């Protein structure tokens, strides 16, 4: 059931099909047809203003907008001298840095597309992407990355030195790759790599030097041309290559100002890997606004939040959880009086913001049914009585907490659901968290919360130009607002398809007429509910493929229950099981840091395993106490080995990968299910 345009400004269809985008943050109003077009305009607009800071590489580097634009053009000219042409593909295997941005934009400026991945991926995965993407060039982060790919590249030695190389045919086997050049972004190549690759191997400086010796030859690139291949993290089999065009990426730059308006001279901190399309697109957007980006990493980000305090910080929910845990640990170390004062003031602030949501019509409890007059009066009275304590909390506690967290204005969270306790905590200390939603296949942002319309628990309103439908998963017919269904999306950010995979593309667009199956379940807040200011906001409830069907016929979405369990300071991850049984079970990964703190407080080296089991059990029962009977956990198993990216049980954005978890912990799952009815 479509929403009215008045209530949902993002639902109207995208205008035009030329692929050009008007970017309000750039001075010129002429359409931009390909992403690299923005850099010369940014250089003209912001000149020597600082665009990027890269403090953790050797050498550390800073980029003005002028230098960034010049480096991109010069690197592109160097790539042209190495034979890169329009329509080619280049594999780019590196973590985030200013040089990554230069290489990425230079490839696009040549009319080519890059296939991106991080250096922590397995050799097999990188090899598959290199071959499946039909790359004719390779750009790697450093000598270590290149050395682990040498066995793959040796099959191309003849092609690299000018002889004919075999066709890979999209196979991940040992067929020779048609690689023309290899570029290493940081440091000097190893002697082994230099000997194996010969004159086809170049450093970042080499390519810039080649570009300085010849002018860049302009290439006509349209919005419909392929800009990048983003390979999804496959839970089974090989990852799929998502084809994103320049128009896809530019639509995000054109429409994200609806949610966020960074200003020239402000600061942003970049933490997530660049192959994560959420980080990548928001970084493009931040640059396009004239805002300076500092590149960080998982080891240094806590220090960087203090050394380079950002106005805007892009992260995933697990990072917000880690920062919250740091605040809690700091409070525990305070003296008794200070700890009690801070804890009570934060609790009062939390109660205040929760009451204020009800008064303002932003509490999801009243999105589907009218807010009772009694609830409104009670919330109004609570907000009046708690306002002085909230004010006092901001002065005495929250201001110091915000300084300790490091973010000055907005946190932009994505890549996973945000637990309600985190939403309430950050609102209580006066830090806005804008939670967004999207997929690699949608460039990615489909919806996001706004600072002026921040409905906690939702993912906000659709991106302008994007349409969302909530349909019955079986019939694909629209369901009424307020009813859960499968979410379909259509708009300028939706991908062109999966590279060399017509079957997967057809399946993703099975609804027809350009509607993409997101695989997410959710509902849309209806209009016309008395006292509600939430109409049009989307609420996610889980993934269609993750639904647990109990033997009594109840369908359970695991995500909200897992989020509730992970709200416990003692639980790091929780994964539910129970399909075909009468009750749920949970695989639990304990929060080792919290348990270590408890042990230290008692003067012990470690807590006894039996006591940990009891504590976890108490947390499981208390966190789910208010839920319906079939959403209770009847049995749980505390895992001894934590989930990790290295063994595949976590995605690279730190989300549990269910298939891999069930495979690795098959014995524990079987033991757990034996206790379920």
Automatic annotation (TrEMBL):
GO MF annotations in UniProt: long-chain fatty acid [acyl-carrier-protein] ligase activity
GO process terms (BP): fatty acid elongation
Biased composition, class Basic and acidic residues, residue ranges: 1-10
Coiled-coil regions listed in the entry: none
Pfam families: AMP-binding (PF00501), AMP-binding_C_3 (PF23562)
A single Gene Ontology CC term: chloroplast
Disordered: annotated segments: 1-22
Domain AMP-dependent synthetase/ligase span(s) in chain numbering: 41-499
Full protein name: Long-chain-fatty-acid--ligase
